Amino acid sequence: MSDIIQQLTEILQQRKTAEPDSSYVASLYHKGLNTILKKVGEESAETIIAAKEGNKDDIIYETADLWFHTMVMLIDQDIEPQAVLDELARRFGTSGIEEKTSRTKK
């Protein structure tokens, strides 16, 4: 895992049990999953808008917000970001068409 992902993971895990008034992330955890998911949705929409507008700086900024809030969601769900990286690694070298057809329907 990259150093920044690892460092951020450790901080997010610490904030999960912190007092809600001690940090923005602690307040998100305190407010619960629905609030976290709303932030993920907002940041996703903002990333889409930035991409439509084509400003690379805005795309980078909004994607960073999206990744950050997605990591908050993962930690809230007791999922290590490394698990997502491992899944990407598992898929690496497999065609997208092949990977999609190999999935079982839920």
List keywords for this structure.
single chain, 106 residues, mainly alpha, globular
Main beta-sheet strand count, sense and barrel state: none
Which word captures the global form?
Answer: globular
Helix and strand pattern: HHHHHH
Number of helices: 6
Taking the alpha carbons of the first and last residues, their distance comes to 30 Å
- Average pLDDT, rounded to a whole number, is 92
- Find the count of extended strands (DSSP E, 2+ residues): 0
Report on the structure:
It is a single chain. By secondary structure, the chain is mainly alpha-helical. It is 77% helix and 0% strand. Helix 1 crosses helix 4 (56-76) and helix 3 (33-53) packs antiparallel against helix 4 (56-76). The model has no long low-confidence stretch (mean pLDDT 92).
Question: Could you provide a short overview of the structure?
Answer:
The protein has six helices and no strands. With 106 residues, the protein is an all-alpha fold.
